[in-house]
Fold these 2 entries.
Entry 1:
Amino acid sequence: MSNEQKQPTLEDIVSLCKRRGFIFQGSEIYGGLAGTWDYGPLGVQLKKNLQDLWWKTFVESRDDMVGLDAAILMNPKTWKASGHVDTFTDPLVECSECKGRFREDKLDDPNKCPNCGKENTFGEARQFNLMFETTAGPVASDENKVFLRPETAQGIFTNFKNVVDTLYPEVPFGIAQIGKAFRNEISPRDFVFRSREFGQMEIEYFIREENWKELFEQWQSDIKDFLSEAGVDMSKVTEEEVEGEDLAHYSKRTIDYEFEYPHGSDELLGLAYRTNFDLGNIERESGKSMVYRPKDGSEPFVPHVIEPSFGVERLVMAVLVSAYRYDAENERIVLQLPPHIAPVRYCVSPLLKNKPELVSKAREVYQALRNKGHSVMWDDNGNIGKRYRRQDEIGTPECIVIDFETLENDTVTVRDRDTTEQKRIATTELF
Ligand code: ATP
């Protein structure tokens, strides 16, 4: 298969996801709900494999990291302290003709409505807060107003003291969390890329101020290793230094990792040195000290923070785009996912589904692979060629077929997704 591949279109990815049960439009049966997506049987496994790899890489394999799972609903003071109540806004303009609202900073032509095409119909931009609001308890009052968290990071910062007081970790150490975040995006778009409900995988890495430069560089390298391990095509990734007025006032350095999505190069994740801005805000709003006392008795201090912030949906999309190939020679679509990320590791089939002796041997192999902890699919529908096409499209690395020769000499055929080559091996070699 040629390695010269053109980039899949957004339509290619969306249609594969729907056709094969990766991702469906949220509430599709009722006409959908903009900015929401449902993961089908294969999508949920792909997402889980990516999240598990992230957790294993950044939490389980490291001595300097611990995990956390904080509540989505948090005391509203959190969002006051973090600045989200006052500044988590997008500038919005309204067209006086069609009443459409648009993000001013995303308009191709600032004087022309992209909906009705009329010119000079926009009034003054208004700031629109992106946090979803709801009420805690039965009384809908201002006092009971709470927000769905717009990021997972604040759950980490607000538990900094709990973690320090219970585990006494030594700086530098990090707290990691995977969870949902919600943003009332004005125009959700580009499939799951900009959703209103999405997953984040965030780390707050607490450090001494004087070490920030070298630790920031270490994170750059760790992030690239992870992306590559996850199956992201690194030739499509660029590091964009955030500069000038785009750089938050408290940040000394921020890098956006952009990926070449079908809609253009756009942010996959961010890496920011946030000084001690967040812990300082919490100290002010809560009146509690965030001072860290080193075990060696040296001077206490409020730690600074480096924050790698990954979006789950944007990673899923980058991995799908990286894996997607059209193989013209064999007229097939194939997802070349790394085996440890593919939602199905093996597909097991009896050559014919109406031969009980083949079916029972195939069942045995299927069960033995599952017992080994692999994700295995049983497929006895249609002819073998069709089964292979189906498995290629969902990225299954190997298809195992049990045929009459298996019954004679206990060998099976294993067909490789990428080369389409088949080889015969002893069944015992599978395990
Ligand atoms: P953007 O500029 O694209 O809106 P952001 O800079 O506001 O993103 P952050 O606040 O840094 O994003 O959030 C961290 C990560 O969360 C992003 O890098 C991205 O992967 C993910 N993310 C943010 N907003 C969304 C969204 N609406 N849908 C899906 N993922 C998102």
Note: The chain has two domains: 10-73+149-322, 344-430.
Entry 2:
Amino acid sequence: MSDRLLEAVTAGVRTVDLGRQLRVGMPQSPNHPQFWHTLPRRHGDMTRSDGGSAANDMITTGTHVGTHIDALAHVSHEGKMHGGVNAAEAGVGGKYVELGVHTIAPMIRRGILLDIPAVRGTERLEGGDEITVDDLESACAAQGVEVSAGDVVLIRSGWAQLFDEGQPYVGGPSGVPGVGEPGAQWLASREVHAAGADTIAFERLAPGGGHALLPAHRVLLVESGIYIIEALDLEELARTRTYEFTFVLVPLNIFGATGSPVRPLAVV
Ligand code: UVW
């Protein structure tokens, strides 16, 4: 059994872990503060009279690290967040109250995997490749699935194979594959609940273009109220051709946060 396939023995439920391990030095977007983990108190630093001791660690981190979800508070366009909320009034305790990650209800929903390299007959897409509407529809047809309102749609590019290589996963000169604005419109027109991918920013990053232009973020988060999930590990689902499953995700309940690290599961 692959180490990505966990057996929940008591319930007899088979799940696939779609989340990444949080580690110092893992690849992450330059847009966000680094994940950092230290051990300020080690065993033996304080020893109780009975000989016992405890180690206590500490993390400091942006909320958009590892596998994570973007709340609607994350992005604005021309001064407005989703629903016309004025971005200038956003701040912890301000308008983030309406759109922060604490407002995302735990998800137990139908999940759909769209495996784009499989329909294109390749191992993984190239940096900067745009996943088109035709790709999305071809994947649905090839896999015999239909995307419906309320689904969580996960789009595989195969780029996750580069996660352990660090910088190449983030893009830079090569860019990163993903949907562009038309693909995001396609998802929005189907009224999905959330859309995810196995890449750092969900959408296509142009070669050399960095993380500057993010039109799919605007379409999904600002215009449509659709959450985005990034840096998923979709390799096990693809390997086992699991295209339909129950998707489970619980964000951290951080008041007013723009995102949260998550550990989503596919119940298969
Ligand atoms: C990027 O860095 C673009 O990811 P996020 O959407 O989390 O900001």
Note: The domain at 5-22+66-267 is CATH 3.50.30.50 (Glucose Oxidase; domain 1).
